[in-house]
Amino acid sequence: MNIKLYALTGTDRNRPFSPHVWKVKLALAHKGLPYEVEAVGFTQIPKLEGGATKTVPVLRDGERLVIDSFAIALHLDEAYPDRPSLFKGEAGRALARFVEAWSQTTLHPAVTRIALLDIHDMLDAEDRRYFRESREARFGMPLETVAAARADEIRTFAGKLEPLRHMLKVQPFIGGDAPLFADYIVFGALQWLRITSRADVLAADDPVSLWFERCLDLHGGVGRSVRAA
Hints:
Elements: E1 3-8, H1 19-31, E2 36-40, E3 58-61, E4 64-67, H2 69-79, H3 90-122, H4 125-139, H5 143-147, H6 150-160, H7 162-167, H8 181-196, H9 207-221
Parallel strand pairs: 1-2
Antiparallel strand pairs: 1-3, 3-4
Helix pairs in contact: 1-2, 1-8, 3-6, 3-8
Pfam families: GST_C_7, GST_N_3
Domain GST C-terminal: 89-229
Domain GST N-terminal: 8-84
């Protein structure tokens, strides 16, 4: 077994921050699979594996190259069926698809506006130039203008998690009594914020905070292997 995960970092190569990489790190831990991490910056990604991708995560599993966090999770369940399942069947895969859509359309835009300048400042000079140029082209405005909404996003962020908060009244994880890949999807978004920004978005006694703390402790505390910002 020879598994390599390419993970996005800033100047500090020991602080991967991509939400999609964290989904995969938790998925690999869930399956109990050993792996090595190769840290890369933004401008290194197009050079990986012969130019196979412009984004991470990328997983090299022996002869198999898998791109995209959801595709990686599917691959891990198919390639290692004797290890704990990430989905527990078709219904779990469908649930995870919905959770991913919700996270990427609701949580990710908010985290971006909160942490945008923090992420920029975590990068080395070459990656900073790339990040500023690519994000300003995407948003059609300077990073500072996008980040002007930061205070409003911090104030309203907890409300975006109400569906999860309501669900946690009856079960400890999205997956039920134990976590599944759907949990790791939302965890990835909050871990992204935890590592990149010092913004205080949730009260300590918020049910979502308590769920996040449980997720940080999973699989020997892999989520705590990188300290908060």
